[in-house]
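quick q for whoever's on today - can somebody do inverse folding on this one?? i tried earlier but teh output was garbage lol. tokens:
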């Protein structure tokens, strides 16, 4: 095709293939709290200490172990709906400075995704030495919310970039580019005070959601992007392949 011999056309092709909707959900570099960037804060107990350190948001629920929740309802004009079939990738930078928990089924910091289909969700829990998925077992201990699959990871050792990809009602989690967890989405029940979190579809939650888990955390940029359509990914691969051939001539 003659059009593919022109550099501008190659660039256009690559841009079209990578133009999946994307958006920043929270940017601590703006030195404003999540509530100033469209998040709704729900709290039980005393508000946590929140400061900005090195361009990141430091939240402390360890010194005063309150239950503190930050919830973002991803309704229009949110950049990407949480369609657990079509797919999306949630990216966030995070480091735990310290963490404590009084139950093997609770953690000081959690990331929860509730899909457009409220029955398709996944909650990731962070300890100082492990990242694990919250499972639900009917009639189980701790109201059925129990420790699921986990991966040993020193979350306090360094600031890490996490990428949670959800597609075809399954999730996969990467830490600094390496895969660490994967599995099916889970249907969490709505119990008591959890209504605003587990009972709301198209919802993203980051924070401390347990009175039996506390942490000091540094949160970086939080963003989301839709998983590219297969045709778009093919066009990108084709464009890059043609560009590589031109460079070898």
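ok took a stab at it. sequence:
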């Amino acid at each position: 095709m003659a059009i593919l011999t022109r550099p501008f056309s190659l660039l256009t092709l690559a841009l079209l293939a990578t133009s999946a909707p994307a958006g920043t959900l929270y940017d601590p570099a703006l030195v404003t709290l999540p509530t100033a960037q469209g998040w709704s804060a729900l709290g039980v107990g005393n508000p946590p200490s929140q400061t900005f350190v090195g361009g990141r948001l430091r939240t402390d629920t360890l010194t005063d172990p309150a239950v503190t929740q930050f919830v973002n309802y991803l309704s229009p004009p949110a950049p990407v709906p949480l369609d657990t079939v079509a797919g999306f990738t949630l990216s966030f930078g995070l480091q735990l400075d310290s963490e404590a928990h009084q139950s093997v089924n609770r953690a000081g910091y959690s990331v929860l995704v509730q899909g457009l289909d409220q029955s398709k969700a996944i909650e990731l829990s962070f300890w100082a030495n492990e990242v694990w998925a919250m499972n639900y077992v009917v009639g189980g201990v701790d109201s059925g919310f129990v420790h699921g699959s986990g991966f040993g990871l020193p979350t306090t050792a360094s600031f890490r970039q996490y990428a949670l990809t959800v597609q075809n009602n399954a999730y996969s989690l990467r830490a600094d580019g390496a895969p660490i967890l994967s599995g099916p989405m889970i249907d969490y029940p709505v119990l008591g005070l959890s209504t605003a979190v587990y009972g709301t579809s198209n919802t993203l939650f980051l924070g401390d959601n347990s009175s039996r888990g506390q942490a000091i955390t540094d949160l970086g940029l939080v963003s989301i992007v839709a998983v590219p359509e297969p045709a778009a990914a093919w066009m990108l691969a084709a464009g890059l392949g043609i560009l590589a051939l031109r460079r070898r001539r």
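fwiw The radius of gyration is 20 Å. also Residues 1-20, 231-238, 242-248 have pLDDT under 50 and may be disordered. so keep that in mind when u check it
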